[in-house]
Amino acid sequence: MGRVASGTKEVVEAELSATSIHGESESTSDEGPLSTRQLVDFYRLMYASRRIDDREIMLKRQQKIFFQVSGAGHEALQVAAAMAMRPGYDWFVPYYRDRALCLALGMTAEDMLLQSVGAEADPSSGGRQMPSHWSSPKLNIVSTSSSTATQVLHAVGIAEAGRYFARFPEAAQRSEGDYRAFHDVQFHGDEVVLTCIGEGSTSQGEFWEALNTASNRKLPVLFLVEDNGYAISVPVEANTPGGNISRLVANFPNFYFAEIDGTDPEASYGALAAAVAHCRAGNGPAFVHGHCVRVYSHSFSEDDKYYRLRSEREADAMRDPLHKLQMRLLREGILSPGELNALEQQIDEQVAAAALRAVAAPVPQVASITRHIYSEDFDPTRAELATEPKQAEKGGKSDKTGSDKTGSDKTMADMINACLRDEMRRDPRIVVYGEDVADATREEALKEVKGKGGVFQLTAGLQAEFGSARVFNSPLAEANIVGRAVGYAVRGLKPVVEIQFFDYIWPAVHQIRNELALMRWRSNGGFRSPVVIRVPIGGYLTGGAIYHSQSGESIFTHIPGLRVVFPSNALDANGLLRTAIRCDDPVMFLEHKRLYREPYGRAPYPGPDYMIPFGKAAITRAGTDVSIITYGALVPRALQAAQKAEREHGIQTEVIDLRTLSPYDWEAIATSVKKTSRVIVAYEDTKSWGYGAEIAARIADELFEDLDAPVKRVAAMDSFVAYQPVLEDAILPQPEDILRAIVELRKF
Length: 748
Description:
This protein is of the alpha/beta class. The protein is elongated.
């Protein structure tokens, strides 16, 4: 390969962007060598990435930034991935070492350094995330978190959503009145999703869950494992049986596999271009395992000299891809020493200038902290959302959606099913999935079986009406359900997913807390993920025992960015679920299992547009002597106690059903407490640290002068729920417990 005669000067003097690398990559053969121009481009981007790392390290030593994590040693593999793909067309779900990838896709040194200093103008997060937490809606780089392996499930969901829109392009159309008004959808039938991960993170269960779904559904997801041999201080053989992840995944069907020297630009590009071609052709996912090196420590906050042999570190330095390519450019005469020095000097100057601008950039205003915790576009608490139930048609019959027109009272289960049907007819972006939610996974079975539709049959008939593309079963993996939903929603779909029992939601908490609820805030509004998670919850089942009777809603009300809804009756379930589906925020919709088919709270079908705003409590019983603040299955029990208190003791008890727990209706609480001066907070979870503790504390704090008695709590014992009914009754709060509290409180 001879000296590049033309074009070298232009490449040497190019700005730090991805223009030329993507301009020429399309014509390069997957099998053949890189052109001289591409090799120079490779070096320019690799060198720029390294110099940004070095500049951050300098700024950290000067205490002008607060954290630093580098991608040094990974650059060749990452630039090759960018060269093989199309920014703004394909989708990218990176991790924190992917500096060279993002630089090659089109982010700039200044973009990255603005994040390093936490500037207001940081395009990735507005000063909210650590450095190297990438995000760019323009380039389709989805916001990165610090969590390991969570992002690969997002990539799967992103790929599924792209395939869905390609199949149903009409679903991409905007619609006013709900979340769709704020989600512009772009898609391509042959788009590919790249997700990157370190070899240590392949130990996480979500990695395997992502491979499982990508393989089963033949999704165009390219998994790039950047293997530098260490997960912080833990060597690969301690994380991966046999020390090689490629050997463990080799039998997944539908994959393209490659294991390469990730420090070699041509080997990396050849494998990645072939992997992209495999995905783009619709043949399934790809898995590229690149062996690279970690030239610097895991982060500036630690020192690998504490756990790595000197000889090992020196061997890695000899494989440094930047130095290897530099020597090749000189050895093969692609650049002269003068041209190489000129290229490096220009990049040094550009990075230094970018750092000066970043350090001088304004920091975010304190007033900006609460922006993007929730949607600024759609307020689910606004009073205009409230509608009146429509009068049912007398003598009518159920239409083909299953919505009852006769005016007969329907259960909560019926009303949830009716709402899902109505909304799916209205909104083609809604997809419903979870464990057992389909009528039958095998299409041929639908012709002769009744269909399941969930263990409580709340999704019965949906697959039969809307098809298997919109209603389907997931693997038995809760993180898989929620993680994929994040990706779906980022692309503009509305996943309404079901976790079969609240008791088994815990594997998904990582995705809910660190990904779903944080997506909008951490990307400074760049991405949003308005998922609805339906969850059967609670006890009073007679035999539900430990693993089918749990409460624990306070865990989720503790998460900013997540709306939490908990209806107590059929009409509220219908109206609140409709608001949740049309909302632009993630919503956890808690459905008490005991209330699904209870006689209490049945109501006629209210019509397909009935809505209830969030944060608006209901006064289910008016009173003047004592207030009960409650929700869920405690509402009918509080009403029973209140009726008995009046009948036997002449006490007038007011019962407030919160209906939504985050947000909750403080105004309704305060108004009631000021009227009665006595208050009980009743809830099904354990008394200590339960949801009602926050309400009780706020009443004591802000309404102390209005109280004539202590704030009382009625709740479950600080225990698990037992199987034996006698024990269950003693553990969970009963109407007589509430009655006793009413009588005691009235004595003050």
